[in-house]
Amino acid sequence: MVFAKDTIKKLNIEADDSVLPLAVSQLGKPWHKLAEHINKNYDNFDVNLSRYFLNKFRINTSLANIIFSIEENKKCHQIYSCSAGKIAFEIDRPLLLKLLHDFYGVTDSPELSDASEITQTELRLQERLGDEISQIFLTPEVIGLPIALQPHHNQQHSHWAWSLSFQLRGYSQGVITLHFDHQLIDQILSGLRQENEHTPPAAISDDQLERQLRRVPFTLTAQLASVETTLERLLTLNVDDVLPVFLNESVPIILGDEVLFQAKVSEHQGQLVLSDFIDHYTR
Fold this sequence. Notes:
The chain has 283 residues and is an alpha+beta fold. It has helices at 5-10, 31-40, 42-57, 93-104, 110-113, 120-137, 140-143, 182-198, 206-214, 231-235; strands at 63-76, 79-82, 85-91, 150-151, 157-168, 176-180, 221-222, 251-255, 258-268, 271-279. The protein has ten helices and ten strands. This is Flagellar motor switch protein FliN-like C-terminal domain-containing protein.
């Protein structure tokens, strides 16, 4: 919902409150399913990211958390394109400098930390991280189809439909962010819809079906006695009155409304049990 300034005043929303505007293109899209979809693959991201940093840089880290945001206007220069759309890679400079120190042993010199422009060493590491980390997150399971990313770092794109940001465990400053354009988000949502609509039921064999049916719980009811009386007698019942009950030699065993068989009521180790089953249909 897009709020005008007058509407915001009527709702007593302060100017510095966090109000998320939604464009017309966003209406009707199940944005919550994107977060669910990513979190469903969280363990895979965590394992692959941990293995990546350990194998490539000998750094023991892992995925700390993932944060999602909708509709962001931000100029990004490290852009990748594929058949499904565009994605941008972004890393906060404090995190990049810390990784640069840990990966290459570069000291945190004032010249490096306070530089106004990114150095060639930082740029090389940033591009390498973007090339390889993007592949970790943009898997066929996430996108819905296999894709090949092509870098277009000389281009510029500033309007992004959705983004995910994550921290690395052990690095408290800075996040890594992946921005998705509308075309790529539409592809992911389309894949989720098709998955929900066309997922065929898992085929099971006759033996598996029989085993499952044999484990279905049900309740058997044994009708021990029935009493026939009149309405007049029923209306005159008082406390301490007694209705005589006579147990039959065999009682019906009922499943739902169907009588399955007859059985005798017996005693075994102080408990009532059913015994001597007789097929109801042979009587």
